[in-house]
């Protein structure tokens, strides 16, 4: 797969055939050389490189080469990780980052009771720009510690969340919320759209930040608003991120009120396309499956949140069998209750097997693909991240497989899926910049974040009416 000479390594992408070689000469001095025991590039699926290194320069992957061919390379930093598996940074394609501050506030309740009786009143009382900044910082710290290098967020004050992501140096898609009723930061859907478009203009040249329309759900956004969103999304080539078919009740109410299932209505409004990121999709009949497949809709699976709220379970194997792209998200920490993508991968695999009655329904490599490249594809970022390919951004996560629970290691990707969680993540890089080193955050001071979160939680618990 890879041929090189000691002085000027010539690198062949693992996905390339012998007659499609693209030879690259490395620079005189590399920024970073990482030498783990295993590398899983994700492309091609199923490949595991043992005793190989990855070379990073100016934030990008420029080579994959055998370890024994790296001794004479001139590098600024040479990182030896002899017990580690190196994978693409994980991509969390759905969440509400600031809701980390509501973690555990109202557990073990049905979805609509959880929302209408607890979460929505708490948001109306407590959510402001300071809340969003603190909650997003808390979420970003947790995600980086768990190997996540890119996340999709859908919450109030998206400009504040964008600023937190930029300061932390993590990749993010900010879906600005659009609801016909007043929400924190916007009096109506028109103001929400106007502020979201302003954020798009302000961040359009930022390499780490992208923006999407975020209509909350079919039952909270009317036809007129959805039609405007479709028109603007087409004009600007922006994604649309939306909760769809989350519960049986949602679908039943839509049929009662409109005579159509939500996906049928969205088709009539012209919203079904590869630009649409459909979140949850636990209720799927044959017609829904056909619509998702024919229109190339991106589907986002949040298994742990759906299980906890008893919302339903996505029939993942049926979607994958129709070549529908299925990505993975945690949802917010208020309904999960963590942002651990490795744990989410394991839950997705177990649930897929159980629903399909097939232990092969979602294997280890397929689950890793769902948490990496499938996520990048869903967010329109597949040319930038999601796999370890030459030219892509160096978004990387190293997982320590030296622990007792990982022994013996016959197949590292299987051990990753079935024995690991965020605690095994040791190092993380975003665009070549280290964000976690030996389990310690490099760019966030977690002490003040934890202190402020604890103080705010005390006030929320006591029902303090003062603004935060």
Core attributes:
single chain; 468 residues; alpha/beta; nine-stranded mixed β-sheet; 15 helices; 36% helix; globular; disordered N terminus
What is the fold's blueprint, element by element?
Layout: E1 30-39, E2 49-50, E3 52-57, E4 60-66, E5 75-88, E6 90-92, H1 111-126, H2 129-145, E7 148-154, H3 158-168, E8 171-178, H4 189-203, E9 209-215, H5 223-236, E10 240-244, H6 248-258, H7 262-268, E11 276-280, H8 286-294, E12 298-301, H9 303-308, H10 316-321, E13 326-328, H11 341-356, H12 364-371, H13 373-378, E14 396-400, H14 412-419, E15 425-430, E16 433-437, E17 440-441, H15 446-462
Parallel strand pairs: 1-5, 6-7, 7-8, 8-9, 10-11, 11-12, 12-13
Antiparallel strand pairs: 1-2, 1-3, 3-4, 5-14, 14-15, 15-16, 16-17
Describe the protein in words.
This protein is of the alpha/beta class and 468 residues long. The chain is built from 15 helices and 17 strands. The chain has helices at residues 111-126, 129-145, 158-168, 189-203, 223-236, 248-258, 262-268, 286-294, 303-308, 316-321, 341-356, 364-371, 373-378, 412-419, 446-462, and strands at 30-39, 49-50, 52-57, 60-66, 75-88, 90-92, 148-154, 171-178, 209-215, 240-244, 276-280, 298-301, 326-328, 396-400, 425-430, 433-437, 440-441. Strands 1, 2, 3, 4, 5, 14, 15, 16 and 17 form a nine-stranded mixed sheet that branches. A four-stranded parallel sheet has the order 6-7-8-9. A hairpin with a 2-residue loop joins strand 3 and strand 4. The termini are far apart. The model is unreliable at 1-24 (pLDDT under 50).
